[in-house]
Specification:
Blueprint: E1 34-36, E2 43-47, H1 63-85, E3 97-107, E4 117-127, E5 130-139, E6 142-154, H2 156-159
Antiparallel strand pairs: 1-2, 2-4, 3-6, 4-5, 5-6
Length: 164
Amino acid sequence: MEPTPDRPSLQDIWPDATCYGCGPSNPRGLHIKSYWSDDGAEVVCKFEPRHEHNAGFPNVMYGGLIASLMDCHSIWTAIAWAYRKEGRPHGSPPSISYVTGTLTVKFLKPTHLDVPAVLRARVTGSEGKRATVHCDLYSGEEKTAEATVTAFRFAMDKALGAGG
């Protein structure tokens, strides 16, 4: 299923976020937009690569960019999953946030620049403040990379020094 951009993306709850990969307020960022699939089984993101995202070879995406896309998309999957697990509207206070503990990427095939990349992620396990997310990246119809992210939940107000 393709993302449905006629509704707000998961990232839209933090309009002032400046993350390079997913922050709406980073003027030079990637501005990825993640959405629950229509059946609610996974979180999906469509990314339009540009020529400057190349790996030094014609029509091949840079591996560091692939890792960044998978990292940000997986963290947003963990956040959205946690809101659903708690039966809360996405973005409702207090904010739920996760950070990356580990990111393991397997590059399976070259990811092309001349077709959209589609990321599909789902939480595959959780224990306490830890969530494990599996993410696949497709170039057209071909799966070109897969990642496992261990995400850790944290209280944003405490992490930023507000509210002790």
